[in-house]
């Protein structure tokens, strides 16, 4: 396999992982909502840890989507041009 195919393979594998991360964060937020639709935490430390973990997951997922898209684009440009 050439280098371009390996990059394409990893790029295509990263897209579902990034989507799963975004859905995981959304599911965590939905579970914390009360009847009025507001998020509730047991303590301030739980809120802080949740914000850090979810923020890292969102930023990591977005970085993965950007890198995967650029990998697919690079393959298309190298293959067709």
List the helices and strands and how they pair.
Blueprint: H1 3-32, H2 44-80
Helix pairs in contact: 1-2
Give a written overview of the molecule.
Keywords: Membrane, Transmembrane, Transmembrane helix. The chain crosses the membrane at residues 6-25, 46-68. This protein has 81 residues and is mainly α. The protein has one domain. Helix content is 83%, strand content 0%. The protein has 2 helices and no strands. It has helices at residues 3-32, 44-80. The radius of gyration is 18 Å and the shape is elongated. The two termini are 19 Å apart. The model has no long low-confidence stretch (mean pLDDT 91).
Query: How would you describe the shape?
Result: elongated
Along the chain, the helix and strand elements come as: HH
Secondary-structure class = mainly alpha
Distance between the termini: 19 Å
Q: Give the biggest sheet.
A: none
What is the alpha-carbon Rg in Å? 18 Å
Any idea how many domains? Answer: 1
What is the typical, i.e. mean, pLDDT? Answer: 91
Unreliably modeled segments: none
